[in-house]
Amino acid sequence: MSARWFRFYADAMRHPKVAKLPDPLFRLWVELLCVASENDAHIPAADDLKHMLKRRLDHLLRGLEDLIRASLID
Question: FRET pair for 47, CA 20 to 30 Å: which of 17, 28, 31, 32?
Fold first, then answer.
């Protein structure tokens, strides 16, 4: 387990962009923040990411598109 941490605002869940996310998409967003923290603010390629997060590629890609559309990742 990594001792790395990142700042996360306690009121993030009340931000309008975040509050509208369904639970699975919120979870993906937090997981991506963790992965980015471990990778110098970069999110790995989807094919690598699917193994890291144990997700089906089609579900992962749909989630990434939704988070990009919500302006929560770029």
Answer: 17
